[in-house]
Write a structure and sequence with these properties.
620 residues; alpha/beta; four-stranded antiparallel beta sheet; 20 helices; 10 strands; 64% helix
């Protein structure tokens, strides 16, 4: 088995990299056109985070560039005084005023940069918080069906893994680009004053490094973009190897070797791609540095010729040398900041694009509040297809639920029971047909008010890393009496009684003083959560899957007693539990094929009778 070829599925990388070189080829003009937009996006985010800190940071960095130019020009006066004829003491005394100006400019530049750095260090965490709040505010509001769309998942992966994390870095890089550009502009202004020919030669030295920075950043981005499926698969395998939940099964099925082979296959494929990236980036950098060195040599050669022919005096030549050195420093800072801004800006754009897409996925604003209760819920010819699916999950499904009824949805796996329940509760919107509450289309009602009237007890409930209290109340505040009543009805009071800190016990062993529950205990907590909601509509989706026979019987008895006056939609494979339902809908491949009471369906001798007979035979 060690030589068995692994099925890598979506992590086969050849298709992803078929056009990587074409996508990675980007010209300097492309990045030059893109930078203003990136700078604008970053500064808008900074402005939203804190206007005062943004103004202080930008204005003081700009002022620092002014002091740089002033200091360079004052240096010319120092050199002229030192290089003139006469006794040394007199030349030194003549240079003192200009020296004072140079020292003052340097002190002011240092002070402004320090204050700007302080303001920027304040700005960064505020930007990070703002970006995170925006991302997770949207992910918690988009239509639920978005999570069934793989394109949404890929975009969310890019936004979460790096996009949101680089928001503050993009703003910092933007400020660094502006600062370096101002410094370079100051140097360029000084050189143009000294002699016009020096400026185009300085620009010639800048372009090769800029091209190399842009090209390598684009190469890296496109490579990382193409590796997202592999990175995600590798993370999943690593999580399986390190998670407590899967640790026992990894050992029981001796899966260690298989998972490590799988991990290694993905890691090797990823490694080969990264090695090819390193080779291409190195070639691009060497080319840029070679051309940049040639451009710098031309600058110094031109300066030497101008000095030799007497076109500029020695003092101006000395100032030019200092200006060129300062320009090289500013150029290096600009290239680094530009490279960082462009590369991180691509990920930041992923974050912005995801937010824009998520905003389009937000449900339309509906101001009409759902009624506190209802008399009748009706599904009329509902059809629904999951994103990317070839066939609909539901086709022309009609059903009705009257207040106080217990309605059962039964059928084999994949028949559409849970999907129908989610549509009835407004979590999904049908592609065609409609759901009405007392004659009002559900799409006209505010979804938040609709959900306040619904409680869900799900088989795949979330095990929240919170205290037992919050796992039941979910942040609502109805008082201790309501909490204990819900726990008592669900049988969760017995679970809580065995916890070391009662309702204050943290239900996650990964944390200090945390406690873990069994599957059945968690199920009782989830049932208590649904009962605590005290909503007019209770949806029970396989609520007894983790319970033993005695606990299951007790729970259904509690649901029946608790449902007095409430409406219950019960989804279950255990048909003995639905015998007393007011109406049973039997689904098969997304269609309602039978409906009626237990006795009516047994007389019909169709799918329900067949499934019931199979289960009953297992107990005889």
């Amino acid at each position: 088995m060690a030589d068995e070829e692994l099925e890598l599925g979506e992590i086969a990388l050849s298709d992803w990299h078929a056009h990587a070189d074409k996508l990675a080829s980007v010209r300097f003009l492309t990045i030059a056109k893109r930078l203003p937009a990136l700078i604008g996006q970053a500064m808008r985010l900074a402005w939203q985070a804190n206007r005062r800190d943004t103004l202080v940071t930008v204005s003081l960095n700009l002022l620092g560039g002014v002091f740089t130019a002033f200091g360079l020009l004052a240096t010319t006066g120092v050199l002229e005084a030192l290089f003139r004829e006469g006794p040394t003491p007199e030349r030194v005394r003549a240079a003192l005023p200009s020296l004072a100006l140079v020292a003052g400019a340097a002190a002011l530049r240092t002070t402004t940069q320090a204050v700007a750095g302080w303001a920027q260090s304040r700005l960064d965490p505020q930007i990070a918080r703002l970006a995170e709040e925006r991302l997770y505010g949207l992910t918690s509001r988009v239509d639920l069906v978005s999570y069934d769309d793989h394109d949404f998942h890929d975009a969310l992966q890019r936004a979460r893994l790096r996009g949101v994390d680089v928001a503050d870095v993009v703003v910092s890089s933007t400020i660094n680009v502006v600062t370096a550009f101002v410094g370079l502009a100051a140097v360029a202004g000084v050189l143009s004053v000294l002699h016009p020919v020096l400026l185009p030669l300085l620009v010639l030295a800048v372009l090769p490094d800029a091209w190399a920075a842009v090209r390598t950043a684009r190469m890296r981005y496109m490579t990382m973009y193409s590796l997202i499926p592999a990175t995600r698969r590798k993370w999943i395998i690593a999580d399986l190897l390190a998670r407590r939940e899967s640790a026992a099964e990894v050992r029981s099925f001796t899966m260690r070797g298989f998972l490590l082979r799988f991990y290694d296959a993905v890691a090797r494929a990823q490694q080969e791609v990264m090695l090819r990236l390193a080779r291409r980036q190195t070639l691009a950098r060497l080319t840029g540095e070679a051309l940049g060195g040639l451009g710098a040599g031309l600058v110094y050669a031109a300066l030497g010729v101008l000095l030799a022919v007497g076109a500029i005096p020695l003092a101006v030549a000395g100032t030019a040398v200092l200006a060129i050195r300062q320009g090289q420093t500013s150029l290096g800072n600009l290239m680094f900041a530009t490279n960082r801004l462009y590369e991180d800006g691509l990920y930041f754009t992923d974050f912005l694009d995801f937010c824009a897409d998520a905003e389009r996925r937000l449900p339309a604003a509906r101001r009409r509040a759902a009624p506190a209760s209802f008399e009748r819920i009706v599904a009329e010819d509902v059809t629904f297809t999951y994103p990317g699916a070839d066939s609909p999950a539901l086709t022309d499904v009609s059903a009705e639920i009257n207040r106080g009824e217990v309605i059962a949805l039964v059928g084999e796996n994949g028949s559409g029971k849970t999907t129908l329940a989610k549509i009835l509760s407004g979590l999904y919107s049908p592609d065609s047909g409609r759901i009405t509450w007392d004659g009002v289309d559900l799409r006209e009602l505010d979804p938040e008010t609709v959900r306040h009237g619904i409680a869900v007890i799900a088989q795949d409930h979330t095990r929240w890393p919170l205290t037992a209290r919050y796992n039941i109340t979910m942040g609502t505040d109805k008082g201790q009496e309501a909490l204990e009543a819900a726990a008592r009805v669900a049988g969760a009071d017995e679970v809580v009684a065995g916890l070391p800190h009662g309702y204050g016990t943290l239900l996650d062993r990964r944390f200090k003083d945390g406690h873990e529950l069994s599957g059945g205990q968690w199920q009782r907590i989830a049932v208590a959560r649904g009962f605590h909601r005290d909503a007019p509509l209770l949806i029970c989706d396989e609520p007894t899957a983790a319970l033993d026979a005695r606990a299951e019987h007790a729970l259904f008895e509690r649901i029946r007693s608790h449902a007095d006056g409430r409406t219950v939609v019960l989804i279950t494979h255990r048909l003995a539990s639905v015998r007393y339902a007011d109406r049973i809908y039997v689904l098969d491949h997304g269609k309602v094929v039978e409906e009626g009471t237990h006795e009516e369906l047994m007389r019909l001798d169709g799918l329900y009778a067949d499934l019931y007979g199979l289960q009953a035979a297992a107990y005889r």
